[in-house]
Specification:
The protein is α/β, with parallel strands linked by helices. The protein has ten helices and 23 strands. The chain folds into two domains: 241 residues, Metallo-beta-lactamase, Chain A (4-Layer Sandwich); 105 residues, Rossmann fold (3-Layer(aba) Sandwich). Helix 6 packs across helix 7. It is elongated, with a radius of gyration of 23 Å. The chain starts with 7 loop residues before the first strand and ends with a strand. The structure holds fe (ii) ion (2 copies). One fe (ii) ion (FE2) binds next to helix 2. The site of one fe (ii) ion has 5 residues, from loops.
């Protein structure tokens, strides 16, 4: 069959050579209703360089896209910005097939890749701020430890002011439009926020520090090329501004009421609480854990000022789907929320138990 997988030009020297996963619906607990992409980029300069690879089952798609612009054997360098398997799963096979002169990663990345895979060659560890000459172009590496793994780093193509930002500024959105300016803005706004809430949220203090650092260094970004979803080119300030806003977690006049119910008593309480909060002037989102997914709750909490959770008693405990969302939220550490709990036990319409406090 004819190869229909083509590389897509991003700039004069940079090509997108990633893969589109139309069917993925779960990313470790985060529901990805619109699928995703695993973005890899080829820099066609004096020293041909591949930035990141793709999830293992998508290796052939990536290799076919590379082959549409260059013989893959001509790749000189591979840079691994992030060793999580959606970006490194095919790395060992790509190294074996391409035999690059060098493979680069952060110090933690080099160690992690060796632990995860049998890679029978040296991985060169690069330091924060280190530059790498590609002949007529230069890459600068920026360590972004814990955004969102200990190994994570950015690569910045100086002459083109292009940031390869690995998971940051991405979204899970499978599409054939490669650029944000070609995509539906409403989908981008929703998917970028959902992605931030479900993946980046716990590292918000680090996001704020990184934005401060990049601003102080006077770096500008003509293009931001993340490892998932569309590439930001015409306007990159919007997504950076959104990250600053989401990371600040400034509470707004919005309450999220989440509940599970057995015989509708807790539901009645949730409805009454919601009506009361709305009467007090808040925007309210009422969510039944029997109907919504945990990722949707976290999306709604971005920018909220209050969270109320309710469950009836089941065997002296709470309902399992409430334990699910509470466990998920414990890990994601949303901040600046006034918290309240309510619930019912014994017969329907029994006296509620409730408590409130700020965390
Ligand atoms: Fe990741
Ligand atoms: Fe990723």
């Amino acid at each position: 069959m004819k190869n229909t997988f083509k590389a897509v030009p991003v700039t004069e020297d940079v090509w997108w050579v990633g893969a589109i996963d139309w069917n993925i619906r779960d990313f470790h607990g985060y529901q990805t209703r619109r699928g995703s992409t695993y973005n890899a980029y080829l820099i066609l300069t004096d020293t041909v360089t591949l930035i990141d690879t793709v999830k293992a089952p998508f290796r052939e798609e990536m290799m076919a896209r590379i082959a549409s612009v260059i013989d893959p054997g001509k790749i000189d360098y591979i840079v691994s910005n992030h060793s999580e398997m959606d970006h490194s799963g095919s790395l060992p096979e790509v190294i074996a097939a391409v035999n690059p002169k060098k493979v680069f990663a952060s110090a933690v990345g080099a160690k992690t890749l060796k632990e995860l895979f049998s890679i029978d060659r040296e991985i060169t560890a690069v330091k924060d701020g280190e530059t790498l000459s590609l002949g007529n172009r230069t890459l600068t590496f920026l360590e972004t430890r814990m955004l969102h793994w200990p190994d994570s780093m950015f690569s910045y193509l100086n002459e083109e002011e292009l940031l390869f930002s690995q998971d940051a500024f991405g979204m899970h959105y499978a599409s054939l439009e490669r650029f944000a300016d070609e995509s539906d803005p409403a989908i981008l706004a929703y998917e970028a926020a959902t992605y931030y809430a479900n993946i980046i949220l716990p590292y918000s203090p680090l996001v704020l520090k990184l934005i401060e650092r990049v601003t102080a260094a006077g770096l500008s970004f003509r293009t931001i090329a993340p490892d998932h979803g569309p590439i930001w080119r015409k306007e990159t300030g919007g997504i950076i501004g959104n990250y600053a806003k989401w990371a600040a977690q400034k509470p707004e006049a919005k309450a999220v009421v989440v509940y599970a119910t057995m015989w509708h008593s807790t539901e009645m309480m949730a409805r009454a609480i919601s009506e009361g909060l709305a009467a007090g002037g808040l925007h309210v989102k009422l969510m039944s854990m029997d109907e919504v997914h945990r990722s949707d709750v976290v999306y709604e909490l971005l920018g909220a000022g209050a969270l109320a959770v309710g469950s009836p008693t089941l065997n002296n405990h709470l309902l399992p789907n409430m334990a699910d969302i509470l466990t998920y939220l414990t890990g994601l550490k949303p901040r600046n929320l006034i918290g309240a709990a309510f619930g019912s036990s014994s017969a329907p319409l029994s006296a509620p138990t409730a408590g409130a406090g700020r965390r």
